[in-house]
Amino acid sequence: MEAEDLKRLVSTHMPYGKYQGRLLADLPGAYLAWFARQGFPPGELGRLLALMLEIDHNGLKRLLEPLRPR
Q: Whose C-alpha in 17, 25, 27, 30 is 20 to 30 A from the C-alpha of 59?
């Protein structure tokens, strides 16, 4: 993980699926866990979804708040 990845979580939108258009940082934990079971997509999106799962699972979502654009 790099610091820039945290900024991407609050600025990148889910490109497809049930939560298309929602920020990665706002995806529900159950959806992230589903991806973990099914397999994360390849590339940067998969890496960011896996990171978001770890953040959500460990109760650290509040750490992303100061990074959100105003």
A: 17
In the block, residue with structure tokens 């529900």: 28
- Count of the separate structural domains present in the chain: 1
What pLDDT does residue 55 have?
96
pLDDT along the chain (70 residues), means of 10: 90 96 97 96 97 96 89
The dihedral formed by the CA atoms of 26, 30, 33 and 37, expressed in degrees to the nearest 10: -140
Show the domain range for 29.
3-67
Residues with Cβ within 8 Å of residue 51, at least 6 apart in sequence: 1, 5, 9
Q: Are the C-beta atoms of residues 8 and 24 closer than 8 Å to each other?
A: yes
For residue 22 the two structure tokens come to 């929602």
What is this structure's pTM?
0.93
Q: DSSP letter for 40, please.
A: P
